[in-house]
Amino acid sequence: MKVLVIGSGSREHALVLALSRDPQVDAVIAAPGNPGIAAIAHTEAVDMNDSTAVTALAETLDVDLVVIGPEAPLVAGVADALRESSFPVFGPSSEAAVLEGSKAFAKEVMESANVPTARTVVAYTSEEAAAALDDFGAPYVVKADGLAAGKGVVVTSDRAEALTHASSCLEVSDRVVIEDYLDGPEVSLFVLCDGQHTLPLAPAQDFKRIGDGDTGPNTGGMGAYSPLPWIPAGTVENIVNAVAQPVVDEMTRRGTPFVGLLYCGLALTSKGMRVVEFNVRFGDPETQSVLSRLRSPLGQTMLAAAEGRLDEVGELDWDPRTSVTVVMAAENYPNTPRTGDIIRGLNTADGLDDVHILHAGTARATDTGAGFAPEDTVISEDVAETGDIVTAGGRVLSVVSLGTGLHEARAKAYAAVAEVKWDGEQHRTDIAEVAARGQITVADIYPAPEEAPAAAALDSTAPELPGWTHVYSGKVRDLYIPDTAADAASAKQLLMVASDRISAYDWVLDSEIPDKGKVLTGLSLWWFDQLSEVIGNHVISSDVPEAVAGRGLIVKNLSMLPIECVARGYLTGSGMADYKATGSVCGIQLPAGLIEADRLEPAIFTPATKADLGDHDENVSFAQIAETIGTEAAEKVRDLTIEIYQKAESIARERGIILADTKFEFGTLPDGTLVLGDEVLTPDSSRFWDAASYESGQPQASFDKQFVRDWLTGESGWDTSSDTPPPPLPAEVVEKTRARYIEAFEKLTGQKFPG
Asked: How many helices (H) and strands (E) does the chain have?
């Protein structure tokens, strides 16, 4: 299938990404697109409001589906022209698009369909508007009756401001809409429609005001998140049954079937659910978060809607993780924005785990300036060179993340935001913050929220600790922030707890290894001390709550580099597999004839990507990490990794242990200082061998979870490649593994394990 996407914003960038994941979609073309879209798909220049031009382009490209993103082409009748030329189109006709083009028409449809909405007065003069404002009282809600790119609504307690907006609306239209104010949290729900059937996507919530705390003027949207952990159970079904389906039925009854995306903006008020607005296209920025979670094939689903076959599509499949979108805007937005500023840090931010940088108001500079300004270079005066990405609109970028729960998703999004810079950039710092704190409440008339998705299941094993809030659980670690911190992104310090969980073959096992967490934490502290002359670390204190004593560390909140820094002194594991296939490891050519466990002199640096829970780390080349974090930073971590390995290898060898390979994680302090983070030189992050029994050409006795791996791949009968979870470990395997971890601690440190 070949799909043409009409539009040029972050919404269209998100659509292109989601469509590209559909296995039945062979090509996605965006028109006119933007520089970000152009990096992943073909783009074509077109006036997207010109029906003739868009239809001619679709014919030239011979596309199988056209998806129209913005509202203006829909109201202009672009979908009508395409349908007349026999193209399947996802997007309503111009007559159906009046649902967004006229607030008064939308109110009329809702009244006919018995859809719950706010009490409304349509005023045709300033005097009528003033009378309506006095009738409703503060807070005042004034809406332009027409397209305003999400900025035609003013909600204020200032009567003069409300009347001024009403008068300005009447200067460009013959009417203005005054509404009753709706209390309660708002919900955005996208509903796919084929003129008869409806299919909802996941709900989201957006943030319209420019400033933190919902202050300042309205914008097109400054951020969003999805799903909504606080939403009452059954809300989506209620919206479909009481709002979306009745509207679709009413539009069909009027002879204007609605085919495309019906955006239902609602408030969960103390008197019940009420519609705030309809849009006839994907909302921006909610689309960015909603589509980042969609696992079902979007292209096939949209084609079914365009062809009236939506009833053939089953329930949609969603990533259980949470997505947060933060919009980065230009100086002076939402007024006339400053443009032409060079954007730096895009590659670094886009290289972070579970993050996408979606473009909107960007362009490639075409004028030759007075100097060269490479990305991430700090200069006193920016002069755009041909090819530089520069600001070209109000909302410039959407930073979209995925994480286990709101705390992690917010932390990832804002970590990426911190990497992107241009003069005058502005963004909100509180997107999804209230929800992350659990402070969104709904009236008692609604049922309780549904249970949290399965992706957060590990969180339930983390203990509650006084003074700390649990925000994330990985394979073997639990992360907490101080109760006084808003989220992980803003917290200055963290509590990192090593659990007794054990993982193997990308599964976290049900069985735990007693004292494993204490071994990892104790060894890390010992190694940090041994390496203090080479590099600093993130540890503040080991004075932690009693429940995690010996397993927890209070650490500095670093800006972590998005790579694993691996040093290999011996050829084994994935390095040996790479060598057998290519004669090299991560692009580093090695001598011919090497065998299992041969020593590599000198040791080599073989970086890897950081994998999500359940995924494999992926070995990458030095050139790839240089592209991700910059050549200078890549050279620095490479040299530090080898220096640390050599020192640690020497220390371990003196104690009868061979350090075959290890991985480090580096991060930076606020002043830019590079330090070690996470654990270091433990049996979980390193391959320790018994020097006394070492002999190349054969597997080595190791101080780690080898007993677990051997049992899982042998006696247990479990298939490591299956989707079936591994069985519980026998008590004997658990005890042998515990003893091996403790032996590593005692041999390396020369200390009796404290237990």
From this structure: 22, 38
